[in-house]
Design goal:
single chain; alpha/beta; elongated; binds 2-acetamido-2-deoxy-beta-D-glucopyranose; cell membrane; TAG_lipase; glycoprotein; Lipoprotein lipase
């Protein structure tokens, strides 16, 4: 923990000592009811560069509001959709390396689209609170730009998708708020937290800013307003990968390896590993269409980590990133998912539920297990897992993930590892639970399967013992249910076609 705090400290040296809320911006003119300002292009400081698939990393042609000739000069395609990419706060005053990556990924998925990068680097490289306050003026610039596209160039609003990272997410929100039509979609990529956690909806990204607002939260560790990414939900769908706090592969060990490999010049990127993960998750959804990640609605990350939230009923699950289903669920709906530590990020989620029984009163906490899954398409062995507690005569539920598609699950092995020290009770051989059935729910397929002991009526899970083996039950409850449903369908009684 201590070392992680050092990183936070470094970030906070980069940031500011204090993060006051906005006071200096021109609140009155910003939200005045006159519409004159939006047609005044003279004070726009942000630049709008139409990047190309061939040169994704350089600004070769700017579209200038008020100058219709720039639209044709840059070969802006009026027929296709437009992505507007908005960067965040920057230490170096230069575009970060993710910008061309995202531009390329957008073109890879939608080759005929227009990808526009907003350049507000000058305002973005100030003292953090100053740059944070500038989001209002930059949002105004973007609002003028898209308003001009629609009013003068007759570009349709429903083809506009703004993508904003960090402070850029709030810029997109303000732009959406200030335009009288609704932008089709805003994607917030780990919207910035400091100065915004407690700010009102007019200053931050919010569900009112576009017809559909989806948000990825990847770096929300720490107390509110100290966390780099905003913690509260700000969209129609807010996804918290790996709990949203911190991302796998961004730990100190990886950081050290990256410093060893690339030196200190990439310091800001190393520090922002979890923050920037939001962008790479979105890029993943663009380029790895066949490996779409799923997220699941859940009341808390603790409940999700117990595997309790893998349901897809009533829009409880959704695809992550570009292919999201645009369901406008009630506000504050948080969704969770696990990921790998590198692209492709997709994992398969399993809930496992067992009842532990024993004649003896046993109680353990933080127990290490190794679980192996065998399926029709593949297998994944020795997945490590720590179970928070094991008590006699209780049912435990836990979440397990694999990065391989094992197909339909056929067999499961579990081994209860023994931590290094030997307790007295080990000698008495009492450290074992009996398990009769193992219930499994698969998030990605929504399959529910019951497993039972391969041999005998139950297995004996022994601490430090051998693998226990479960196989798919012959009289699987759920398959019986399916047969029953099938029968009813065949009889044409209860089900009409396409009721789903
Ligand atoms: C603008 O607001 C002012 C005061 O809030 C009000 O008196 C005025 O009628 C409004 N104008 C329009 C065009 O809505
Ligand atoms: C657990 O339940 C079983 C059967 O229900 C019972 O025989 C056993 O005594 C219980 N164990 C304890 C420690 O209460
Ligand atoms: C339809 O229902 C009837 C009465 O419940 C039953 O006897 C019959 O076997 C069913 N048919 C099929 C195809 O399941």
């Amino acid at each position: 923990m201590g070392t992680e705090n050092i990183w936070l400290l470094v970030i906070w040296i980069f940031l500011a000592n204090k993060c006051e809320s906005f006071s200096t911006t021109t609140e009155a003119t910003l939200f005045s009811n006159t519409t004159e300002w939006i047609l005044d292009y003279t004070d726009i400081e942000s630049k709008f560069s139409l990047r190309t698939a061939d040169v994704p990393d350089d600004d070769l042609c700017y579209i200038v509001p008020g100058q219709p000739n720039t639209v044709s000069e840059c070969k802006f395609n009026l027929e296709t959709q437009t992505f507007v990419v908005i960067h965040g706060w920057t230490v170096t005053g230069m575009f970060e390396s993710w910008v061309p990556k995202l531009v390329s990924a957008l073109y890879e998925r939608e080759p005929s689209a227009n990808v526009i990068v907003v350049d507000w680097l000058v305002r973005a490289q100030q003292h953090y609170p100053t740059s944070a306050a500038y989001t209002k003026l930059v949002g105004r610039d973007v609002a003028k730009f898209v308003n001009w596209l629609e009013k003068e160039i007759h570009y349709p609003w429903e083809k506009l998708h703004l993508l904003g990272y960090s402070l850029g997410a709030h810029v997109a929100g303000i732009a959406g708020l200030l335009t009288d039509h609704k932008i089709n979609r805003i994607t917030g990529l780990d919207p910035a937290g400091p100065s915004f956690e407690y700010a009102d909806e007019q200053s931050t990204l919010s569900p009112d800013d576009a017809k559909f607002v989806d948000v990825l939260h990847t770096n929300t560790r720490g107390s509110p307003d100290r966390s780099i990414g905003i913690q509260r939900p700000v969209g129609h769908i807010d996804i918290y990968p790996n709990g949203g706090t911190f991302q796998p592969g961004c730990d100190l060990q990886n950081t050290m390896m990256m410093i060893a490999a690339t030196g200190l010049q990439n310091m800001d990127q190393i520090i922002k590993c979890s923050h920037e993960r939001s962008i790479h998750l979105f890029i993943d959804s663009l380029v790895n269409k066949q490996q779409e990640s799923m997220a699941y609605r859940c009341s808390s990350k603790e409940a999700f980590n117990k595997g309790l939230c893998l349901s897809c009923r009533k829009n409880r699950c959704n695809k992550v990133g570009y292919g999201v289903n645009k369901v406008r669920t009630r506000r504050s709906s948080k969704m969770y998912m696990k990921t790998r530590e590198m692209m492709p990020y997709k994992v398969f989620h399993y809930q496992m539920k067992v009842h532990l029984f024993s004649p003896d009163k046993l109680s353990f906490t933080e127990q290490p297990m190794l679980v192996s899954l065998y399926g029709t398409e593949g297998e994944k062995e020795d997945i490590p897992l720590t179970l928070p507690y094991l008590y006699t005569n209780t049912t435990i539920s836990f979440l397990l993930t694999t990065d391989v598609d094992i197909g339909e699950l056929l067999m499961i092995k579990i081994r209860w590892e023994k931590d290094s020290y030997i307790s007295l009770s080990d000698w008495w051989g009492t450290n074992k639970f009996k398990i009769r059935k193992l219930r499994v729910k698969v998030g990605e397929t929504q399959a529910k399967v019951i497993f039972s002991a391969k041999e005998g009526e139950f297995v004996q899970l022994v601490r430090g013992g051998k693998d226990v083996v479960f196989v798919k039950s012959k009289d699987d409850e759920s398959s019986r249910k399916e047969q029953r449903l099938h029968k009813l369908k065949m009889n044409g009684s209860l089900f009409k076609p396409n009721t789903e």
